[in-house]
Design a protein that fits this description.
Length: 494
């Protein structure tokens, strides 16, 4: 039983915590929106990506070490001797003895030697008997020579370790390194633009809720006035001092006020949901804003410089476009680098099997070398020219875009300053009109109580008062939004 009670208490506390009202001000709303905004999170990832790309670009200055290995099976073996040469070598003794037997001059010389010196005849006969053995030995020697010149190159294994140090690449490495550094700055500038856009959208949603909260209170107050007037007219109809036509006119106004109040409440609910969505809160979160009181709204004023030059130096969009222009200038240099020769220092450590360095024996043999490579472009069907022209066109396009945005910013600043002045004038006029409407309503109520003012005049005075209050509210909100807009177009911090 005790466990069950504790469980119920836990549920009550949990539900109460979940649905507890949350009090927010403009700064807390901005902080929540910035903390959960997906565009900002993606912007942070783009900044991280650009940072790593710049670090990767810097490595092009440094030597690169690579290793490669390969295995080949050759369908035909490598033979250094032709078939005729192999046949001659393997029959070297036989062909030699045949040549000797067919040599007439040699035979005549031996015959003359035998006639002149008969004592050498046994020796010459012994030499003749040794000719087949000599032929066999020469044949063996030739065969061994053929075998020695036969290499097994059907299974070949290769390996190489290469060290490459760029010396001059036509300026491509330097330009690419600068372009990636500028791209990292561009990512940070775009992230700042996104951050400011989030703040502006948060402020607009915040003041929209403030406006609708006050309009709800105003509509409820106006409905209360009409309902009180309806009650007074009903009593007067019963006493015969007012007509049913006056009562019907008031009832129509009451119905209109109820419909207006319902519309405002629906709009307020949607606006609160939008603010919760921007702030990353559940849509059903009960939120109360500290500026909901109409009299608590104190319009902010930007007191800094409002010149176009200050906007040029502070707007992140202009900085992004300027960085884009610089990036495309570097890309143009990268494309142009293909016109120039490229020089690199290269070192290799090579391993082969069969060994290329010891008679193609079936062992691993190694070697190393160091050298300089030079690559000079001669003709590529104007590919480099076309790429350079394309990069130059992109560079000029960004220059035109930068000029266009500067002109638009000048117009935005002029319009924003004018809107601030107009909103101030509108607020001053709204305050004056409200004073007059309140005075008119006070006299209308007194006159109606004295019986010298008709119901229609009272309704007109209440409607005028409602309109004046609404106008003053809209003017105050417009002052806030005009200040937000001015800060946005000037690029100043919020």
């Amino acid at each position: 039983m005790r466990v069950r009670v504790l469980f119920v208490l836990f549920l009550v506390v949990a539900v109460g915590t979940t649905h507890a009202q949350r009090v927010l001000n403009i700064d807390s709303c901005r902080a929540l929106a910035l903390a959960q905004n997906h565009d900002l999170q993606m912007g942070a990832l783009r900044v991280e990506k650009a940072k790593y790309e710049h670090e990767a670009a810097f490595t092009n200055y440094l030597p690169k070490l690579s290793a490669r290995a390969a295995y080949f099976y050759n369908g035909r073996n490598l033979e250094l001797l032709s078939e005729e040469q192999r046949e001659r070598l393997t029959n070297l003794g036989t062909r030699t003895t045949e040549k000797l037997g067919q040599n007439t001059t040699l035979k005549q010389a031996l015959l003359k030697l035998a006639l002149d010196k008969p004592e050498l005849i046994p020796t010459l006969m012994a030499m003749k008997d040794q000719l087949p053995l000599m032929a066999e030995q020469l044949n063996g020697l030739g065969t061994s020579m053929v075998d020695a010149l036969h290499f097994d190159m059907q299974n070949v294994t290769l390996g190489a370790v290469t060290l490459t140090q760029p010396i001059y690449m036509g300026g491509k490495i330097t330009a690419y390194n600068r372009a990636t550094a500028l791209a990292a700055d561009l990512a940070r500038s775009q992230e700042e633009t996104t951050r400011r856009d989030v703040v502006v959208s948060t402020d607009k949603a915040y003041w929209q809720v403030i406006s609708l909260v006050n309009k709800q209170q105003l509509a409820a107050h106006y409905l209360g006035l009409l309902q009180k007037l309806q009650s007074d007219i009903e009593k007067m109809v019963e006493e015969g001092v007012a007509t049913k036509s006056d009562l019907l006119s008031v009832r129509v106004k009451v119905n209109e006020a109820e419909m207006s109040l319902a519309k405002v409440e629906d709009g307020l609910n949607l606006s609160r949901m939008l603010l919760c969505q921007i702030c990353g809160l559940p849509l059903d979160t009960a939120v109360r804003l500290v500026d909901e009181g109409l009299e608590d709204i104190r319009p902010h004023r930007y007191e800094g410089a409002t010149s176009v030059e200050s906007a040029y130096t502070q707007r992140p969009e202009l900085r992004s476009l300027d960085l884009g222009v610089q990036i495309y200038r570097e890309k143009m240099k990268i494309a142009r680098s293909a016109y120039f020769p490229q020089v690199a220092l290269v070192g290799n450590f090579l391993v082969t099997n069969p060994s290329l360095y010891n008679g193609f024996e079936k062992k691993f043999g190694w070697n190393w070398n160091v050298g300089v490579t030079l690559s000079v472009p001669i003709w590529n069907w104007r590919e480099t020219t076309y790429k350079t022209r394309a990069a130059r066109a992109e560079y000029r396009e960004y220059q035109e875009k930068l000029t266009d945005v500067r002109e638009k910013i000048e117009m935005q600043v002029t319009q924003a300053v004018a809107r601030v002045r107009e909103s101030d004038k509108r607020l001053t006029m709204a305050e004056r009109n409200l004073e007059r409407a309140e005075e008119n309503l006070r006299y209308a109520n007194l006159g109606f109580q004295e019986g010298v003012i008709t119901v229609s005049k009272v309704l007109e005075a209440q409607t005028a008062w409602m309109s004046a209050r609404s106008e003053r509210l809209d003017a105050k909100i417009d002052v806030q939004l005009s200040d937000v807009n001015l800060r946005r177009v000037l690029g100043v911090e919020f």
